[in-house]
Specification:
39% of the residues lie in helices and 27% in strands. The chain contains eight helices and twelve strands. The longest helix is centred in the middle third of the chain and has 40 residues, at 175-214. The relative contact order is 0.08.
């Protein structure tokens, strides 16, 4: 009976341990899903990285967590988020309070053991033969100066690193322990890439808007319903209408009746979803109608408008044929 009770007790303990591990993994997966949904363009990079580092701390059990990003201009690694790491002197190669060159950091990685796609700095293996500092630790026990580094990599490009230390379980990392960290590192790298793309997009939009606002030729954008959604100042001057009088109005309203048929052919060509992406209309002659009813001959250039590789409208560039300068036609 004693043996049976012992076996039942062991079974119950084993089941309890399995349930605990299962719940822990479910919690990890739930947090990963939540992070994936939070990784959006309207959330700042620092906020996303703060959430990631906090999740690594709470969900995976690492007291020291930091994210370092590479600055392309200086060639240095800079700290983005640092949690813990209360004794920076233990990690002289980490840019905890300042920066470190990428070259110096690569020297550190060469001293590391590779686990999956990550790097483990084993302080015990790096210690001098005469150093008895780690002598009392077992081979699997975490040394206070150990460090685990996970690259933030996307499209075969290293954007920075996630570094962790001081695990709650006090054990050196295994592949099973590293893989969840690599997921979080992937989320961090996606956030960096999204931010870079978003910044480039905003810069491109700003350059486009600056060009459109200052160019001498009239420029307008229409949606697939042929309504005007954007006009530049030169077009307003050309036909003597305000922006409010033009936005959301049908394009044909501002062309002479004799131009309507040819204009419709241009629009149909630009909006044709079966046409090639490079479709464009060059230097066709049309007539605009100003607010006073004056007819203004123009040269028209048209291009399809794409958003996420789908045609969503078109834009036209209009040049006064009399002078070549918008708003300077003869009276």
């Amino acid at each position: 009976k004693a043996e049976e009770i012992l076996k039942k007790t062991q079974t119950v303990l084993e089941d309890a341990r399995n349930v605990k591990e299962a719940n822990f993994k479910l919690k990890q997966h739930a947090r990963k899903i939540a992070l994936g949904s939070e990784n959006k363009l309207d959330v700042s990079l620092n906020e996303i990285h703060t959430r990631i580092t906090n999740s690594v701390r709470k969900t995976l059990g690492w007291n020291d967590v930091a994210i370092f990003l590479e600055d392309e201009t200086s060639g240095n690694l800079l700290p983005d988020i640092v949690l813990g790491f209360d004794t920076p002197a233990k990690y002289p190669s980490l840019p905890l309070n300042n920066f470190v060159s990428v070259y110096s950091f690569m020297v550190l990685l060469k001293k590391c053991e590779q686990i999956s796609s990550s790097y483990f700095f084993n302080a015990r293996m790096q210690a001098d033969n005469n150093d008895t500092r780690t002598g009392s630790l077992s081979l699997t026990e975490w040394d206070p100066s150990d460090l685990l580094v996970i690259p933030l990599e996307t499209r075969n490009e290293i954007l920075g690193y996630l570094a962790v230390g001081d695990p709650v379980d006090r054990l050196k990392p295994t592949t099973e322990k590293v893989i969840p960290l690599e997921y979080y590192a992937n989320q961090a790298s996606v956030a960096v890439e999204n931010t870079n793309l978003y910044d480039r997009l905003k810069a491109s939009q700003q350059r486009y808007r600056s060009l459109a606002e200052t160019m001498s030729m009239g420029l307008l954008t229409c949606d697939k319903h042929e309504n005007i959604v954007y006009i530049n100042p030169a077009f307003c001057r050309l036909i003597d209408y305000s922006t409010d009088e033009l936005i959301d109005r049908p394009l044909k309203n501002f062309f002479s009746i004799t131009s309507h048929e040819g204009l419709q052919e241009v629009i149909d060509t630009l909006l044709n979803t079966e046409s090639v992406q490079g479709t464009k209309i060059e230097n066709l002659e049309f007539e605009l109608k100003s607010s006073s009813g004056e007819i203004i001959p123009v040269s028209l250039f048209g291009f399809p408008l794409f958003e996420q590789r789908v045609k969503t409208g078109f834009f036209l560039i209009l040049n006064d044929r009399y002078t070549g300068i918008s708003g300077a036609h003869p009276q």
